């Protein structure tokens, strides 16, 4: 179910948004989509964050966009490095923007906008270092059951 919500063109647009956002930062962005969320959405996002080994980035600057499409729940989870750098309401502001697009059925655009918003902050606080930056995590969308 989760994989069917996004066409191959939608998936490619989301992956391109991730790559574009990561061009100017050492930060890492991942998107995980599944059908259902068992339990609290933030708890599930933390488990996915750990499973994807997002906490192992050098600067602790990974950001996860987690969506449970059937349950219509989502979360954005940043690691310690980026959380310490952004304003307290930063993630909530992104969530509100994304939620407004999701309510209009614009799931791909909501994700793309959220990714770009996170990427801007990552670029400000963790600029790309040409001599040492590597892509620490895959840019592909991961899907759960």
From TrEMBL:
Domain TPM positions: 3-119
The protein, known as: TPM domain-containing protein
TM region(s), chain numbering: none
A Pfam family that the UniProt record links to this protein: TPM_phosphatase
């Amino acid at each position: 179910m989760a994989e069917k919500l996004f066409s191959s063109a939608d998936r490619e647009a989301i992956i391109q948004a991730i790559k574009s956002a990561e061009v100017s930062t050492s930060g890492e962005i991942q998107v995980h989509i599944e059908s259902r969320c068992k339990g609290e959405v933030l708890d599930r996002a933390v488990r996915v964050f750990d499973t994807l080994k997002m906490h192992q980035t050098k600067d602790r600057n990974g950001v996860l966009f987690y969506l449970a499409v059937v349950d219509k729940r989502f979360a954005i989870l940043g690691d310690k490095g980026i959380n310490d750098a952004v304003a307290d309401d930063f993630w909530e502001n992104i969530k509100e923007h994304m939620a407004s697009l999701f309510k209009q059925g614009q799931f791909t655009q909501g994700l793309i906008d959220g990714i770009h918003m996170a990427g801007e902050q990552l670029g400000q606080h963790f600029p790309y270092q040409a001599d040492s930056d590597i892509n620490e995590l895959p840019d592909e969308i991961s899907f759960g059951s």
